[in-house]
Amino acid sequence: MTQLDAKVPTIVATEHVARARRRRRTSVFWLALPLVAIAVLVVVLPMTGLLADPRQTDLDNTLAPPVFLDGGSWDNPLGTDKLGQDVLAQLVVGGRLTLFIGLVGALVAIGPGTLIGVLAGYCRGWVDLVVSRLIDAQLALPFILIALAVISSQGSSLPVLFLVLALTGWAACARVTRSVAMTLRERQFVLGLRAAGASEPRIVLRHVVPNLVGTIVALGTLQIGTAILVESALSFLGLGVVPPDISWGAMLASGQDVLSRAWWVATFPGLAITVVVLLVNLLGDALLTHHDPRKRRR
Amino acid sequence: MARGEALLELRSLTITASVADRQLLLLRDVELEVRAGEVVGVVGESGSGKTTLARSVVGLLERNVQVATGRIELVGEVLVGPGTDLTHTARGRSVGMVFQDASRSLNPLMRVRRHLSEVLERHVDGIGRDEVRARSTEVLRRMRIDDPDRVLDSYPHQLSGGLRQRVAIALAVVTNPALVIADECTTALDVTTQAEVVALFRELVDELHIGLLFVTHDLMLASDLCDRIAVMSQGEVVEVGPTDQVLRHPTVDYTRRLLAAVPHWTEGASATHA
Lengths: 298, 274
Prior knowledge:
- The complex is a heterodimer.
- Chain A has one domain (74-291): MetI-like (MetI-like fold, Orthogonal Bundle).
- Chain A is 74% helix and 0% strand.
- Chain A is built from 9 helices and no strands.
- In chain A, helix 1 packs across helix 9.
- Chain A is elongated and about 75 Å long.
- Chain A starts with a helix and ends in a 7-residue tail after the last helix.
- Chain B has a domain at 105-176.
- In chain B, a hairpin with a 2-residue loop joins strand 5 (77-81) and strand 6.
- At the A-B interface, helix 6 and helix 7 of A face helix 2, strand 7, helix 4 and helix 7 of B.
């Protein structure tokens, strides 16, 4: 009888654990899916010919409302801007550039940032001293100042935008990876590896960096969000993507002066930025959990 | 390695640390030797220099810590002497080290199998995959692990504390080093597991004729395992001798106080194996 009693909660617990396990395993999938869908959509849709030409102006049809408002039509499902350009087509084509800038912008910041941070945190000594002061100096400068300085001297183009993203993004990554590398180098298993005769480059590459992957992934996804936001901000100010190139930030800028009359011009790209940045951040969080074998179930 | 041959010799070893323009004496004139097939215990209170002593042999001293004078010889080779520091060449090959807490001394992202293969590939030239596999299994069996394959395919966090510590010991001995240093390696374990680990060490020393430098603050444990005991206080070895003699007839006041501090220490209850 006692045995029977004891069994009941066990079964309940197993079921509960199994359900939790299923949920955890799929969270990365369910977050990555919409992002991949968005990415595929913005690449494939313009090729199908279903969309209007995003750069086709129509001055007889400016600021047309979206289809679900009075006066809207399926010709421009999300309405048109002040030049009569189709907002949906602009949103899709602009999404391409925005996502591309987000990805590459994150990579150019994360790559050097991680390298510098790990070197400083693991080597310590004068390397750390120099790097730390550089990070401090970098973080003390407002990003808009750097952006203005670089863009006004180099002109506004995609490579320059990446340069700005790298210059403004590396320090935060370096600071975080430095501190993690510092705690890792004092961890007993690193000491044990040294005692077992492993060479320093091997310890860094095979043991310290893999233990940093979770941090790097989290930083990377956050940085994608930041890069998209920076691009939007710069484009909004007319310093980033400028017409005829289209990005969500540039759309936001072109929609601001008509916001009171035609909210849809700026709202849809704004929504798109919000949703993508949110998804990317949640995905980063899920990946972080997924990477750590201690948090992952067997 | 013939039994009785001196493996590790510390000769008038003095180690200092530079802290804010001052030189702090961590070890003063330490004389100690470990012979093959012998367990030498290093006991003393916290801060007495036990860990510094252990780490100096494998060159794991902090940046601001230097060997001021003296020599460390391992199997007749001068590891540390005036102007030389070869500790890095001895690591893993002739010295294995076991740390305090195995949950922290293993890389959490690597399965046990990779821990072992990494050490083997580094220290055994031209070792093949099959041999790595065979030696990994063999060393875990030697650690009295019944199902080596399951343990080999586990991540550290999936093992119990006792199993983890045995894996850590396996890592230290898999390359057949002459000397093993255990730094407080039983502190994080419960009493039963401690006894198992101690028995395992005894077996390894008796069968493989390795030398074992066993650093601990636990006098009871030291009395169970060690052949000889060195008592350390404030960076000096104040007393060294056979376990029985040191614990039953301490010549130094410090040792007496140390013994008095052990709860339920009764004369004769110790050193049963010797």
